[in-house]
Specification:
The structure is a single chain. By secondary structure, this protein is an all-alpha fold. Helices cover 68% and strands 0% of the residues. It has 10 helices and no strands. α5 (81-94) crosses α10 (178-191). It is globular and about 50 Å long. It starts with 5 loop residues before the first helix and ends in a 7-residue tail after the last helix.
Length: 198
């Protein structure tokens, strides 16, 4: 249930989506609030799901784990805890848990190499002041060894999370228990983002 858009819940209580949610509920599985946003206008969200899958799991110089960590780091810098926790849990399925924790706690003292630290500094600036990005930031990324494709992909992940942070916060998506984030991270590693709400 989203806290703010109650009509979404009643619209989804019918048909196969309602049955799927009921089966998950009956099995004791937590249904994240965000899942209520996707079935509501499927002509729109089907495109969103495919786009998200391609951005987060498609071919890229950036590994899926780094892309998940970018999502978590951007969301933390953007002060949106739900996405930060959810995608930290997903990043931990691909990367070491300690490394994920270090980056989210203090990028500069983390074990990330210098090239990745430069990339994450750029992500932090995108969260805090995207209009302040200058050519010098991109030059530093290139000097650190990042290709334009890698920079483009990092920028696209950050931009996608700007959307999701706003979409979820505006709908009232609620925080979950720590164990539910861990479960969500496992699901995202196993199934990716191609959710089927038929």
């Amino acid at each position: 249930n989203t806290r703010y858009l109650k009509e979404l819940e009643s619209a989804q209580a019918k048909g196969m989506t309602g049955n799927a949610f009921k089966r998950l509920h009956d099995a004791g599985e937590t249904i994240s609030d965000i899942l209520h946003l996707f079935p509501f206008k499927r002509r729109t969200t089907d495109h969103l799901v495919r786009f998200t899958e391609e951005v987060m799991r498609g071919p890229s110089p950036l590994s899926p784990g780094i892309r998940e960590l970018i999502g978590a780091y951007f969301s933390k810098k953007n002060q949106y805890a739900f996405c930060s926790h959810a995608h930290a849990a997903a990043a931990s399925q691909f990367l070491e848990q300690d490394l994920v924790d270090e980056v989210l706690h203090d990028l500069e003292t983390s074990r990330l190499d210098s090239a990745h630290k430069e990339l994450f500094r750029y992500i932090g600036k995108l969260a805090e002041n995207p209009a302040g990005i200058t050519a010098s930031e991109i030059d530093r990324l290139k000097e650190a060894g990042w290709s334009e494709e890698a920079i483009y992909d990092a920028l696209t992940v950050a931009s996608l999370f700007r959307f999701y942070n706003t979409w979820n916060a505006g709908a009232g998506v609620r925080m979950m228990a720590s164990s539910d984030y861990v479960h969500s991270g496992r699901v995202l590693k196993k199934l990716g983002y191609c959710m089927d709400f038929k």
